Amino acid sequence: MKASRKSTRPLPRSFYRRDPLVLAPELLNKVLRCHDGRAGRIVEVEAYRGADDPAAHSYRGKTPRNAVMFGPAGHMYVYFTYGMHWCSNVVCGTEGEGDAVLIRALQPITGLDLMYAARPLAKNDRQLCNGPACLTQAMSITKLQDGVDLVAGETYALVDDGMPPPDRPVQTTRIGISKAAEYPWRWYVGDNAYISRK
């Protein structure tokens, strides 16, 4: 399916003010754009639902590490995991609830030369962004981007270029967690080569 219209305007704040279980599949096929020309289409996501979700960083309340999750919707929450990787999330829902959606994979669109420079071990386009740690490397997202306002769009933004979410996204359990691992809160674009794994 091809995009029907191009837009350079970031998605509005109202787009993010929804429950993560509603927002997550709606994020599929939106475009994450960096100010330097790098961009990728979101093809895989996972929802994390605050106090209702033992796997969410916000489950036990607000801390300096997860403070952005409790702020206004439409900001980027970035955290460090396994002592080596950054992961990027979209804060959503109602302020104070601690809801977010993890971006798990992107399909690279533009700026691939910059992505390869940031991920020199990638052997092909698929390996650039096929996982949460890979895509943050490819898009140069680190702790410095924690709290970035995606609606202002000065450095990073989410854009709708006219390609709608899939009518029937694949829905499965989440990956790489030990708590609430049975929750079916992961969605991805079926048959897309750029997801992290089937």
Describe this entry's structure for a reader.
This protein has 198 residues and is α+β, with helices and mostly antiparallel strands. It has a single domain, classed as Methylpurine-DNA glycosylase (MPG) (3-methyladenine DNA Glycosylase, Chain A, Roll). Strands 1, 2, 3, 4, 5, 6, 7 and 8 form an eight-stranded antiparallel β-sheet that branches. The chain starts with 12 loop residues before the first helix and ends in a 10-residue tail after the last strand.
State the secondary-structure class. Answer: alpha+beta
Instruction: Round the mean pLDDT to the nearest integer and report it.
Output: 94
The CATH topology is what?
3-methyladenine DNA Glycosylase, Chain A
**Sheet of most strands:** 8 strands, antiparallel
Low-confidence runs: 1-5
Distance between the termini: 21 Å
**CATH class membership:** Alpha Beta
What general form does the structure show?
globular
Enzyme class: hydrolase
Protein name: Putative 3-methyladenine DNA glycosylase
EC number: 3.2.2.-
InterPro entries: Formyl_transferase-like_C_sf (IPR011034), MPG (IPR003180), MPG_sf (IPR036995)
Question: Outline of this structure?
Answer:
This is Putative 3-methyladenine DNA glycosylase. The protein has helices at 13-16, 20-27, 112-118, 132-138, and strands at residues 31-34, 39-49, 76-81, 85-92, 99-110, 156-159, 170-172, 186-188.
